[in-house]
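Thread amino acids onto this structure.
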């Protein structure tokens, strides 16, 4: 079923495990695990060395990912975007975590993800 037509609960059943994997793989600096659910377009966006640099930089500055709570789900004709309130272990305040999911080859894939 088209992801954008599913309920919030059903979308979260797809998105939350993917986001958990992304966070855990970033913490472990595990590139292959991190890109496991990426679309082909997103896989081409950065190398293992770039990934490692990004992970080491945020870990030194902010610590590790901590609590996350959903703010909103945005439905588009061919994708959904999710936005969470994200905390880190060392940096005070709240950050934004976002992920865009698409359907590609009959599977759901992460087509964009960022924490800022």
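Threaded sequence (116 positions):
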């Amino acid at each position: 079923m088209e992801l954008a037509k599913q309920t919030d609960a059903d979308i979260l059943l797809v998105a939350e495990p993917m986001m958990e994997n992304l966070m855990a793989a970033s913490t472990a600096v595990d590139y292959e695990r991190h890109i496991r659910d990426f679309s082909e377009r997103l896989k081409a966006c950065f190398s293992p060395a770039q990934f490692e640099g990004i992970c080491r930089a945020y870990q030194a500055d902010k610590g590790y990912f901590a609590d996350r709570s959903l703010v909103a789900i945005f439905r588009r004709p061919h994708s959904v975007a999710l936005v969470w309130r994200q905390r880190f272990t060392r940096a005070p305040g709240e950050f934004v975590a976002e992920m865009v999911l698409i359907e590609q080859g009959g599977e759901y894939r992460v087509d964009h993800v960022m924490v800022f």
